[in-house]
Amino acid sequence: MGLFDKILEKLGINRPAKTEPAPQVPPAPQAAPVAPPAPAPIAVVDVVAQLEKLAAANAQKLNWRVSIVDLLKLLGLESSFAARKELAAELDCPPEKMGDSAQMNMWLHKTVLQKLADNGGNIPKELLD
Fold this sequence. Notes:
Blueprint: H1 3-10, H2 47-57, H3 68-74, H4 81-90, H5 95-98, H6 101-118, H7 125-128
């Protein structure tokens, strides 16, 4: 399980299961056409409310809205440089940003929030810009 999957798990966001294509079998004569199953809808999770609740209960003043380190700490996940570099590689961070920890952190924070939104997290637009 990758670090991003752990983030999703901590927030209660379930990734949609990957569907494998059905094997191609010629239809039986006189068989009624079968429609493919509809994809399951993604449940929306209020990420901000969850993070604000965690922040209120945390003794540290963590600014998860701008800091990937604070976001990871708030979720109880490893926030070391090595862990962040691993997460950046997992999310396909551009190589030119990987060499500069500040640029990597900014890219990583924005990308994690966007990926949370892509997976059913309710993230306000101002946090995605």
